[in-house]
Structure formats: structure tokens, C-alpha cells
Fold these 2 entries.
Entry 1:
Amino acid sequence: MTDREWAGEVREKILQKYEAVAPRNEHKVPYSAKNGVFDDHSKDIYWWTNGFWGGILWQLYKVTEKPLYRSMAEELESKMDEIFLHSAWMDHDSGFRWLPTASADYTLTGSEEAKNRIRIAADNLAGRFNLNGRFIRAWNEDPRSENKRTGWAIIDCMMNLPLLYRASDLFDDPRWKAIAVAHADTAMTAFIRPDGSSNHIVAFDPVKGGVVRTYGGQGIQVGSSWTRGQTWALYGFTLSYVHTKDEKYLATARKVADRYIERIPADGRIPVDFDQAPDCDWEDETSAAIAACGLLTLEKILADTDPAAADRYHAAAMRLLKVLVADGNFDPAADEILDRCSGAYHDKEHNFPIIYGDYYLIEAIWKLTGDELFIW
């Protein structure tokens, strides 16, 4: 069986599962699941992961054209309009919110309302750019913390830059792309370590520019390798290459990818942090799914110019995906597929479902079958 044939069988399992999952979760905005039942983040519509449910629905709609998937995705997108009315809810994650929703919607339907949402979201993300340090600021101030976040940036934002690239292309205006490139250039030197691993949080001097310090963030500690952060870098720099064709981004993506592949455990299951103790069983299947998407995109980019590297990235992606699928729950009676994910190493809860794990798994399978709606 070829890898594409294998992926085709997985796709059919996903489609069959969602024939049951979608109808019983109409009007919900899931983040996680307990006992096989999705929760509902509708009251916390600002939450950064809420766009991924829309992304799943639009990926399903592209393949099936089932009206329910479209209507559910459009309902979510409309609910998210409330975020635009609260400045405290707007942060660096505008790409995660509106690329899988408004941008996907516009691509498939040509909706002018969706197009307008892309502009509003991109304008707000661009407004977070600090010219002094040439970075996009992460988060807003947290009154519970003594740490001022004015100069903070995080590696996650590499995955939000495609919103700015998308807006520049869509509205034929180079301003957004210029900001995305400036941030990517800064991230390339401030976040990526000599060995190809990535910092999570970098604090810049917001007035004079320059790096002040780094934080461990969602990993174990400063200098460790929080695995999802490594994949935000891997896929994020790959996407900056896709949108700019600047070879330095491709070189950076490959450097990160090579380091990630080196550290995949023998069983193919990705820990929360590559530096956690060997006897710690905390996993993050979201990291594996995101990495697979990035690796498959690298494979496509390099297929003609460096086929040996393309094959290596493909093999690594398949290794990760086959473990995820083997461990996944494809029973239509359960809402989630992946259930061994983690938000951060120091969180109290580990090895539970997270909606973007399922999203990136579906995206990776769709890449293999040729069904992907490219949202980034």
C-alpha cells in the first residue's frame, strides 16, 4: 500500500467519524473533550484556539460539500465578530483565529464579509508591530503578573504571519507583508539557536530594541525545547518561504526540521519537551501533527531541487502520522481523534484532547491525499 492509499483510508475514517461528530456538536466551539464529548468555548469566544474548529469544518466541506459543515463554519465565524469589539481580546493570534475561518471561507465561497474580516484582523496584527525591535508583540498585559509584556514576542507568531501575507496579496498592498518579513527576520536570529532548536519567549527592549532575555515559557525551563514551539518554528519559517521565496527562511526551516527529526523518540511519540525526564510520559500529539504538516510542505518544496531531503522529510512525517493514527480514536461515538496532547509542560493536566491536534492531523492527511484547502 502506498502512503497516499494509506492516507485515503484514514481520510475515509475521518469523514465517517464526522458524519456523527458534527451534527451533535452543532452550535458548539470545542477546545477539548472529556469522556468523548467536546466541551464548548462559546462563552470564551476570544480564546485563541477557536478558529481551528472552523478549519476542520472547512476542510471537511471542501471534500464533501455537505451544507452542514459550511453552515457550522459560517456560524462560528459570525460569533467571532464579537472579538473585534474588545481590544483586550485581540492579540498576536489573529492568524490562528481568522485564517482557518474567514480566509478559508473567502477562498471557498468568495464571501465579502469574510474578506472584510481578513482586513480587520490583519490591520490589528500589523498594529502590534514594534518598529524599535522589529517584532510583533505577543499577548497583552496580565494584571496578575509582575512581568511587563511590552517587549515580549513568541515563536508561535511565525504561524500568524501568513495572515499578513494573505492580506497583502488579497488587497494588493505591501505593508502587511513588509511587517511579516521584518518579524520573521528578527525571529530567525533571536529565537533560533545554533543547534536548530527554538526559544519560546524572547523579551526585547521595547524602546531601544535588542534582546533583553529569554523565558522558558511553555517548556520546562530556559534553554529547553518545548516541542510544539519547535513545530511553530518548523512550519512557520516554511510558510514564510512559501510566501516570499526567500531562501534564508527555507534554510532556517530545514535547520529546525533536521533538529526536530534528530530528537524524535524511538517510539515516535512526541513529549511535551524534548528535555523532559525519560520516565515522564507526558506527550503532545499536537506537536507531532504540526510537525507532519511542516515536513510534508518541505517535501513538496524540495521535491525537484533536493529529492533526497524531500524523501527524508516525507519519511519523518509518515513516521509521526502512523503513530498518531494508530493511537487515534476513530470511533464515531467519541468526538475527538487525538487524546494525548498538552498545553504546556508546567500545566496541571496532560495527555488530553486539544482541538488543533485534530485540525493539524486532518490537514496532514489531506496533504497526502491531495484534498487540502491551503489556509496558511
Entry 2:
Amino acid sequence: MNWGRKKAIVFTFKRGIHPNEQKQFTENVPINTLLPPAGCDIVFPLLMHMGATCQPLVERGQKVLLGEKIGDSDAKISAPVHSSVSGTVKDIRPHLTIAGTIVNSIVIENDGEFVEHECIKPRENYEDLTREEILKIIREAGIVGLGGAGFPTHVKLSPPPDKKIHTVIVNGCECEPYLTTDNRIMIEESARIVAGLKIILKVIQTARGIIAIEDNKPEAIVHLKEYCANIPDIKVAVVRTKYPQGCEKQLVAAITRKEVPSGGIPIDVGCLVHNVDTVIAIHRSIVRGRPLMRKVVTLTGGAIRNPGNYKMRIGTLLSDLVEMSGGFKSNPAKIVVGGPMMGTAIFDTDVPIVKTTEGVIFMTEEESFIPPERNCIRCGHCVECCPSGLIPTELNADILKEDGEAFVRHSGLDCIECGSCSYICPAKRRLSQAIRTIRRVELAKLKAGAR
């Protein structure tokens, strides 16, 4: 890749759409810290990541400190859970999560003092750490992909020996409508992103680093280019604003022009992709000795009184966050966790913010309105926009016939569930929703060996 060209290169991928961004609520709102008050319950699901559920390391009635490890697993693919407050373990019980699942969770009554555990201590000599020491610290800090997938970061940074990594991409695209936390993080914490990427490149010594930012984030681009100016192995790549630019496969294709194979992942083409906040969490764990305890979340939509980007403690109940931020100005007609394209609607706000929570949208009746579904008119718009190159109408036909084998044969498992087909459809066919349901079933069969 020629980084010496004077004319700016704008990268992109094939197909995709341009949904209404709806970022005006919060894109210019600086990150504001919200601390849970004393006496409130902080709930820690023991599964906030992809992989094995953690086992509790504490008991009811036990005093815990901020940063103390309260859950862990011996499984290779897992990540420990740490208390984000100091207080007393009130209960260990199944609890509803923000993803709509019931997970065994540790409930801690916050004492409001935020007394830190002795494990939290800055490292003055972190540049002397070995690759293995860095990976161990990242693992013990409980860091996972903070862009939504939640894959344990220490595992991601340990690719098999036959997978040579040449490019580490820091994903600053944030292409989902409404969400703006990554943009604010890039503006406000640019130096830490670059410093965190340098730590990653010490682990993956064969790679160069690329920070990918969509061209609708000019302030973030300027900030990060300034901090990267004199670092030969780290550059900023400006990518065209288009959805779903932030999905791993599409971002890899845009930056490297390499296609991740069907059923494959970025390491198959020599790439690793990390969210900007994940990179900052790595820096925080290595330099400041702090495990993953906080999350920056966009609270937005027409129904909330004070839309903004809020830094909050993991485990804080959404209902408490709404109250701390100023409450509702009208009753929300729909509450969506994540972006409106790939997010999930929830019915209860007594659910905790977890490691992978990026935003919550509190929609008015007008914002949440979806026209009724009509018959397909064979326009082909869904085929033209599908970033995975699929034929959604064909997959929908397989679904209507309840033919799972045909769905798999027509590459339905390659769907990234971005929702582009449903968004662009003039007949408002629920294509993405139907595909998502059957895809879950077929993936479960594949995992069980039934396919």
C-alpha cells in the first residue's frame, strides 16, 4: 500500500447503503462520567463475552473492592469479570441481561466509596514487558472486543502460527445510525488509541497499524493524524461513509482489497480488527494497571431528556442510568440496544450495562414506526446492496418453505445480519429478521454436527 501519495485515498467496499445517520443528537456532546450512587445494586452477568461462562469467585455477604476479580473460567475462550465498585455481595442469582438472556449474575450493593483493590497499580516500565506478559495482563484485565462481538482480546491477539498477520486495523468507523461513542473517544482520547496500538504492534511484530475512520468524522481524523504523524508503522486511513463499513469483513476488504473467504475470519487474510475502545482498554490495563470496569455508551433518541455519550461503570442498571442522565421527556415507544440496524429491542430497563453495550436508543412513536410488510415487487434492491453478495429474496424463499438445507446451500450462513436488505426494501419485507432467526438455528445445527 502506497502511503506516500499526496492525494488523500478514501477506501470503501462493494455495495452497502446510506441510512439516515441520526447522529445529530450526540455527535458534538463530550463524554460525561456518571457514577452510580451509594446503595444501588450493580449487576455483573458472568457471561459478558463470547465463550465460556465464568464461575463466581465471591460469596454472598463478602466485601469486594473496585477492580477485584469476581468471576473467571479455566476455558481458553473466556474472560474474567471484575467489580466496577466497592461494596458487598448481595446475591448471586440468574438475572435478565441487556441481550435478553438469563445469565447467572453477581449483585453487589455499591457503598459509593469506590475503594480500589491492591491489584490496580500503574506500571512505569511497561515498555519492557514481553509479548507473553502483555497477553497475560490483557487476559487478566478481562478485555474483550468492545465493538459488540465480545471475543476475548487475548485470544484474538494469539493467532495460530500458520496465520501471519500483516495488518492490524483499528475500527473507528461507527457506521450504525445514532451511535457516537467511538467518534467522541477518538476526539477525546486520540493519544491513548495510538499508544494502545503501539502495544498491540509489540505483540504482533509482523504487522503495521491502520486506524480506519469514516470521512464523516473530520475532527477525529485530524486528531489521530496529528498523533500518528511521526510513527512509520501507524497510519490513518479515511474510509467512505457507508453502512456497514464497520463490519470486520467489509472493513478488511476496504483497507486491503482482500476478501475474507466464506466461513472465514480476518486472520485468514492476515488481518486483525480491534474497536477503538478495545485499544484504549488495552492501554489502560498495561499502563495504568486497570481491568475493564467502565464503558462509554450513547444514550440517545427522541424520548430521552438529555441525549449524550456517558462513561459509566459496567454492571450499572439501565434504569439507574436513565435517572442519572435526567430521565425521559416522553415515554419511549421502543427501546433498542445497539444501533437501529443490528440492535435488539428490549422490554425491561432493569438490565445491566455490560462490556459490549455501545448504545441505547429510546425511540418516540414516530422514530419507531415501521410500515406494514407487503409482497415482494422483484425490484432487486436488496441484491444490489447486500455487502456479502447474497440474494436475500432467494434466502427469504428458502425460509418461507422452511428449507434450512437450501438456506445453507445458498450461502445464508455468510449473512452478517446488517439489516441493509430490510432497510432498502420498498415493500418493507422483514428479510433480515427472518434470516437472523433461521441462521441461528442452522448455526446451532452446524455446531452440534447435524449439518
